Automatic annotation (TrEMBL):
Keywords, sorted A to Z: Hydrolase, Protease
Tree of life domain: Bacteria
Gene3D superfamilies for the chain: Umud Fragment, subunit A
Membrane topology qualifier: Single-pass type II membrane protein
Protein family (similarity comment): Belongs to the peptidase S26 family.
Intracellular or extracellular location(s): Cell membrane
Pfam families: Peptidase_S26 (PF10502)
Chief location category: membrane
Domain Peptidase S26 positions: 7-94, 102-142
Protein known as: Peptidase S26 domain-containing protein
Amino acid sequence: MIAEKTLIATAALTRRLVSVTVEGVSMEPAFQDRDQVLVIRRRRPRPGQVVVVESPFGRQGWREPPLPARAAPPLVAARHWMIKRVVALPGDAVPRGLRLANVSDERVPAGMAVLLGDNPSSSFDSREFGYFPLVRVLGVVRTPGR
C-alpha cells in the first residue's frame, strides 16, 4: 500500500512540478545556458516573474492546440519551451518605449501577456512576436527564497 501511495504522490507531483533545462542565452545574466530550473505548473504569473512558455512556430504561431492544464510529463516533454520574464498581463498598460510586434493596444488584452528575454540582443519574445497567450504558459520558475 505504501508503494501505491508513493506512486500516486509522485504522479501528482510530476503534474505540478517540472524540471526544465535552459537552452540559449536569452535570459542572461539571470539564467545561463544549461541551467536547470524548477517550474510550478499553472501558477498564475505576476509581472517580474520568469515563466516557461511554449515556443511558437516562428511568427506563424503554434501548430498544435494548447496542452491541457494537467497534461502528463511525456506530453509536456514533446513540446518546445522558452524561458521569459513577464512584463505585463491582461489589463496592464502596454509598456511604452518598447517596440512590440503586432501590438497597437493601450492595455494587454484578456488571456494575453507581454514576455521579454533579459538579453534583448539574443531573445525571441514579444518584441518580435507580440502577445503570448497565457494558455501557452507552462508555469512560473521557482527561484530560491520564494
